[in-house]
Specification:
Radius of gyration: 24 Å
Number of strands: 2
Oligomer: single chain
Structural class: mainly alpha
Shape: globular
Strand order of the largest sheet: 1-2
Length: 422
């Protein structure tokens, strides 16, 4: 294949450009869609401002969007999203220290050694392990571990498709279930006023269902192709591999006591964050503090050099900075919609349109909307900031539980992450 052929294909705009195009669309709509607002009442028990869904009025747009308004919205969007962005940076920095320490890789090797000689158990173990990584928000962050898992699976005599499916499907179903995935579940729940990570039991059950289906499907393909390599999707390569008797080689990481404690600490961080958010009313500052504390504990447990660990923390945080800016740009869309006063109009129009369709049809429509929107806005957290301020009030008007609206969002986002070319 020539370099010219390799360059063929569709090149999609960067997510920042997509957000700015959406912002331009909002400006256009601000001149077409009439401004309107619901009456807002402060709940004396919770102190939360709620919509009075019985009282909607069309109003004259207070301040039309000007040229500078468009660009200052970018700055204001990042500033208004600072609490979410900082939390993501702290979490990413701490998790990168853990990743670079080799603790996660060592944990994988230890699990594999326990399952030595039991190929099917290794497949199941790896799938569950990667699904757990997905539940805590490892999307692109799990990519460095995919070659390791593939080397192990191919070394057991399976083809490359099986080897690739195990880690990627695991990450996909874990991310989609959103058990403690801050990027989708956490952000969505914070927007609609739910305790972060509430509704945990349902998402755990959903994850279990996804895992069972994935195990059955992958094992069926793995067994079929191992018995008859010609049935492999990559049969030619697979047959050559078997003929050459190539065995995958990988460098094993020692599972030391310090690495064990580091992984135990991660479990405690996740459990503690969920408990604090649900039972103690923790918000972004407290969750950020938990990861800052965990990063310091990792330095002590793993006996890392503080300066080097600080640099690693910064590199890890930098990996999520593009996501943070995407969240800010998404908030910019909402700032312009708020200025144009068309959010309530959209909610009011949608509620009238869907009021007589029934709950199931409404949820299916919203599910398809999220799937469609995921083609253009790939950021899970950024998309939540655009859609949930509309889906949340819409759910209240139509009598749909807010947890259900969050689930519709996270499933619509997660299921298509590996399907859309964007």
């Amino acid at each position: 294949m020539s370099s010219k052929d390799k360059q063929k294909g569709i090149n999609f705009p960067h997510v920042y450009i997509m957000f700015m195009l959406v912002m331009m669309l909002v400006v256009i709509l601000s001149w077409i869609v009439p401004s309107g607002e619901y009456e807002r009442i402060v709940n004396p028990e919770t102190g939360i401002t709620e919509l009075n869904t019985e009282k909607f009025t069309y109003v004259e747009q207070a301040k039309p969007i000007g040229f500078m308004d468009f660009f200052t919205a970018l700055h204001n969007g990042v500033v208004q999203s600072a609490d979410i962005i900082v939390m993501l940076l702290f979490a990413s920095g701490a998790l990168f220290i853990l990743e670079k320490s080799g603790a996660i890789a060592a944990g994988i090797h230890k699990l594999l050694s326990i399952a030595a000689g039991k190929e099917k158990l290794i497949i199941i173990t790896l799938l569950i392990l990667f699904s757990v990584l997905g539940t805590i928000g490892f999307g692109e962050g799990g990519i460095p571990f995919i070659p390791l898992a593939m080397a192990v699976v191919m070394g057991l005599g399976y083809d490359r498709i099986t080897a690739f499916a195990i880690p990627t499907v695991g990450l996909a179903i874990g991310f989609t279930s959103g058990v403690v995935n801050f990027y989708t579940t956490g952000v969505s729940q914070s927007i609609v006023g739910l305790p972060i990570y509430s509704g945990l039991a349902f998402r755990i059950v959903a994850l279990m269902v996804f895992v069972i289906i994935s195990i059955i499907y992958i094992l069926r393909y793995a067994n079929k192709t191992k018995e008859d390599p010609s049935k492999s999707i990559v049969a030619t390569e697979y047959l050559e591999e078997l003929e050459n008797s190539k065995t995958a080689e990988y460098e094993e990481e020692e599972f030391t006591l310090s690495r064990k404690l580091a992984l135990v600490g991660l479990v405690l961080v996740l459990v503690g964050s969920a408990f604090g958010a649900i039972k103690l009313g923790w918000g972004m500052p407290e969750l950020s503090a938990v990861y800052a504390i965990y990063a310091i504990i990792l330095v002590l447990i793993l006996k890392l050099k503080p300066s080097e660990a600080a640099e690693t923390f910064g590199i890890g945080a930098a990996r999520l900075l593009p996501t943070g800016l995407a969240i800010g740009f998404a908030r910019s869309v909402m700032i312009l919609m708020t200025q144009a006063q068309i959010i309530d109009t959209a909610v009011h129009s949608l509620s009238n349109l869907l009021s007589n369709t029934g709950t199931i049809i409404t949820l299916l429509v919203l599910f398809i909307v999220v799937i469609f929107f995921n083609f253009f806005v790939v950021s899970g957290s950024g998309k939540a900031i655009i859609l949930m301020p509309i889906m949340g009030p819409l759910g209240k008007i139509l009598g749909i539980n807010q947890q259900v609206m969050v689930v519709v969002y996270q499933f619509g986002d997660g299921f298509t992450n590996y399907l859309w070319p964007t």
